[in-house]
Amino acid sequence: MQFSHGEAKLIAGYILAQYEQERATTRRVLDALPAGKEKYTPDERSMSALQLAWHIASSEKFFLDGIYTGEFKAGEPNVPDHIKSGKDVVAWYDANLPASIEKAKELPGESLTKVIDFFGMFQASALDYLSLMMKHGIHHRGQLSAYLRPMGAKVPGIYGPSGDK
Known about the structure:
Layout: H1 5-31, H2 49-69, H3 86-106, H4 109-112, E1 115-118, E2 122-125, H5 126-148
Antiparallel strand pairs: 1-2
């Protein structure tokens, strides 16, 4: 679907406002990752809890920066050595995402309607990638929240109270 520059700017503002609400929830889920359980995985084909937490946080920055620059560049596929726990992921998330969010908010409508290539797999507008970023994060946040109870942690409320108090 194509939008005028003004429509794209309005929709981006709406998506980014929703994203910031979702980000607060995502932060609570990341923060619930219990120390000492970072290697937990429900299946050998699944990412470990720490890998999944890092994927969630780093992917949001990846999408925001690609939208802002108009080009997606391959990110670091592995958890950096200095990230050892969920608390480290949260600290990185808090330190690195706000500037990227602000840059996305400042984009003019022309930039939001620009088509960006995604590694030769498909092309979509920057606005489409904003929506995809939020869906991607919510999807993986759901995965990580499903890891928490088997790891001995409490699941924070996501769209209302959780069964954990």
